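Re: How this chain folds, sequence and tokenised backbone to follow

Filed under: protein folding, tokenised backbone structure, sequence and structure records.

Contents: The amino acid chain and a row of whole-number tokens, matched residue for residue.

Body of memo: The sequence and its backbone structure tokens, given next.
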Amino acid sequence: MFSKASVSLTNRLIKNNMIKQEDFEIYQFGIENFLMRACHIVSYLILGICFRLLPELVIFLIAFVPLRENSGGYHAKTPLKCYFLSCLAVLTFLCLVRFSPVSIMEYSAILSLASSLILFLIVPVESENKPLDDTELTYYKSKAGFLIIIELALVLIFKMLLWNELSFIITLSLTFELLIALAGINLKSRKSMIQG
């Protein structure tokens, strides 16, 4: 779907002399990625509006997306599977925020500390789609580590200020990334066992 639309849009740009034919693949790839991301974001916002948790969702995405991009973990093999899994993750987040009792939110500091410590040990997690060399591993490790520290600090500050819901939202971003990282490690180890 996005592939056809991106090809059509890129051909239109070439036809209108806005880009050169030899740059077709670069622009087509960029347009396709833009369309996919736009579809993801619009879907997330619709879910947030349906649950009446749009501000909470925006805070979660601000915390989660940079952490996800720098920590790695499981990646779906197809754009459609990626879309459905991402929407499922957002839906799960919204359900947890909407339906979790306040008593569970009280434990956000403990959960975020445990998630952070494990993430520190395992990130970045490579995937088949995104193998990393030594320089990239060092770069992503330090960047992910910095983000983990910032988010953990925010959880503790929000906890001290008794802003339990905000603390819980940031905790969920750390916990979701931990689950994705562990899924990526599990998939990688299963594949190496099959090949070995």
Summary: The chain has eight helices and no strands. Residues 125 and 131 are 9 Å apart (CA to CA).
